[in-house]
Amino acid sequence: MSKQFGWRSRLGGSVSVVAIALGTWLTPAWAGDPFRRENPRNISDTTEQAFEAFFRVGNYPLAAQQVELALSEASVDPILYAMRASLVYLEDPDNLPSEFKDYATLTRSRAEALVNQDPLRGNIYIAVGHFLEGAYALKNEGMVRGVPTALSKLQQVFRHLDRATAVDPEDPELNIIKGYMDLMLATNLPFSNPERPIERLQTYAAPEYLAKRGLAVGFRDLNRFEEAMAAVDRSLELTPENPEIMYLKAQIYVDSGDRASSLPWFDRALAMREQLPAELVRQIQRERDQAQRRVDAEQASNR
Fold it and tell me: Among 248, 277, 281, which Cα is nearest to 265's?
């Protein structure tokens, strides 16, 4: 997939990096909060389970079931609408339906209803909602209408993330989302400095497995392959059954020039294809086939 998809296909993550779960890492007060040891928020266990299926396990059919179950609860967390938008996106990234925009707007509106009660998380997900709405405009409205809308939405994203930062600049949930966004921009825009988002992910973001995953993607795109491999190995250690992390490790091998070592990791990811969206499976297979052709050509030239 082309570089413009960068952090969607090649991060093994998704357009919205908006939730994570750890399990026993959490304090008992609100067991559903996947982010915080201290000052946990009232996030339901069902929402946490949906998030675990999405990001820790990388099982998208299970995540879809858990999201729908959590959306039936009396109080719906804005993170759920963001995950639902991401699931729609992953079904066909090149042809976003209006349903994607609907969930993006629900993310923002539910966050706006939360902001007086919890200005930190309210502003985080207002930003996420604007980000998703901007992505829809950029994808579906063409350059003339889409780019100005997306840029306006990006301004709103930064405005609300700044408001969340003013509440608690060291909050793990804020820093996992802001770290991903900032590193994505830093690795795709000229003259950008990636060191600040790298520090953010290394120091403040949680849970660790998702922070390491983001660092692996960023280091890969910066051609810092030794650091990328160390980060992806740690993410794999923490989430050993996630096929997207296996896929990410294969990509790091390819980008570093060691295509032969990538093949077993592509194969391990493909062996778990039932967990993944069909378009992502096709992408993994394409990259695996390309790597195999290069390996075969190199071996033939050395005979």
Answer: 248
Query: Of all helices (H) and strands (E), which one includes residue 15?
Result: none
Using H for helix, E for strand and C for coil, what is the string for 93-119? CCCCCHHHHHHHHHHHHHHHHHCCCCH
Is 1.20.1440.20 the CATH classification of the domain at 3-301? no
For 301, the token pair is 């030239």
CA 97 to CA 121: how far, in whole Å? 27
Place of tokens 């306006």: 152
Q: How far apart, in Å, are the Cα atoms of 224 and each of 216, 247, 249, 289?
A: 9, 18, 13, 25
What backbone torsions phi and psi does residue 20 show, to the nearest 5 degrees?
Answer: -155, 165
Q: In whole angstroms, what is the distance from residue 3 CA to residue 5 CA? A: 5
Cβ(177)–Cβ(107) under 8 Å? no
Residues 72-119: tens digit of each pLDDT: 988 899 999 999 999 999 988 888 999 999 999 999 999 999 999 999
Give the span between the Cα atoms of 152 and 150, in whole angstroms.
5
Farthest-apart Cα atoms in the chain, separation: 69
- Amino acid identity of residue 189, one-letter, is L
- Per-residue pLDDT tens over the stretch 198-247: 999 999 998 899 999 999 999 999 999 999 999 999 999 999 999 999 99
Answer for the pair 208, 202: CB distance below 8 angstroms, yes or no. no
Q: What is the pTM of this model?
A: 0.86
